[in-house]
Design goal:
The protein is mostly beta strands. Helices cover about 0% and strands about 50% of the residues.
Length: about 120
């Protein structure tokens, strides 16, 4: 089955940037829409951004619109999340998840998940 591995998290100061990667193995990522979700301590998992399998359609949560950019490189079997102007409220574990072709905003509709990568925004 498809396996996903996130990387690129870490500690960054407010206003800083990070780029997260979601790398796939065992199957071609080009068939899958990839959604980044995040979960802060004591909170529900929330959607961040999604890109469909072709890369032609993307969407963003209002809280990250204009600051985060999702992209994909199907030749490298990887999806990226560029995060700029980071705020303390962006602190969370970030997960990538996959489903065939098209994005969905519902956690339950994603078949494959990575293990998560911690992002901490603090001075």
């Amino acid at each position: 089955q498809l396996q996903l591995v996130e990387s690129g998290g870490g500690l960054v100061q407010p206003g800083g940037s990070l780029r997260l990667s979601c790398a796939a193995s065992r199957f071609a990522l080009s068939y899958y829409a990839i959604h980044w979700f995040r979960q802060a301590p004591g909170k529900e998992r929330e959607r961040v951004s999604c890109i469909n399998s072709s890369g032609r359609s993307t969407n963003y949560a209002d809280s990250v619109k204009g600051r985060f950019t999702i992209s994909r490189d199907n030749a490298k079997n990887t999806v990226y999340l560029r995060m700029d102007s980071l705020k303390p409220e962006d602190t969370a574990v970030y997960y990538c998840a996959a489903r065939l072709n098209f994005c969905s905003g519902y956690v339950a509709e994603y078949d494959y998940w990575g293990q998560g990568t911690q992002v901490t925004v603090s001075s």
